[in-house]
């Protein structure tokens, strides 16, 4: 039965006079048709649609209070990475970065947002073969970029110093010549002059162990010991690949050492946090436990909503009927309008 017209559904169901149970999704026409044709039949909502309707409702909740990009305190892993990855990228490294981001499923527009490279250059880099990638060389534009960052931060420090002296935004505009919008950006605690790579990931055999390699190496662990540790966990690559990984990562980050002295934040994208509604954290490679912890500390409601989804899935899988009412009570206590319709439907089941 493919029609969603009530009369068609009623007529079709009438062909089965002995129905006692009917499994359906949340479409109200189906519910009405079943009540009309088989008033004594018990309605059953299938697991897939229950979870989908819940995650859709919670996604709407998250969109209301969480922006697309969230600034959080710099995590321990990122600080360690900043210490290791302080060199500037060459053209080769930029190409490898773009290809790496593309291999993660990033669109050209997303790569442009992360790297600030133009779309034509990004598409060119993505098409390049290994043989066409140039060897490392000095990059004048990268040096210019670093100088530009330093100039920006000089202006930021000037504006913030004026504010500390009691200057109003209007007076700062008159004194510096910057626009009101620019001054507000400079005064924002989330201001970041660098729109570079956040949490770059490399495809290949070493990808699942990336964070662990950085952590072990930052503690001074010899490459041989790192290799042995990873092999026990399923790594099938070579020790040389681990050495190359650290060397390349150092070159791929720009200005991190200088920027770390003036900034203690990093950016997390909302889309990765939404994936946690569908996948466990271990399956979302763009996030770490510490990053999620920092986001939840800033937005406690996010943690509660993630808990609701996974607790609900657990109830369905384990068939713990006694836990359902407690779950409903917990969900109602959040007083979120986006959840009201779903909760009312659950109560009617």
TrEMBL record:
Source organism, top-level taxon: Bacteria
Protein name, UniProt field: Transposase
Ranges where the Transposase IS204/IS1001/IS1096/IS1165 DDE domain occurs: 3-186
Organism: Niallia hominis
Matches recorded under PANTHER family: TRANSPOSASE FOR INSERTION SEQUENCE ELEMENT IS1557
Pfam families found in the cross-reference section: DDE_Tnp_ISL3 (PF01610)
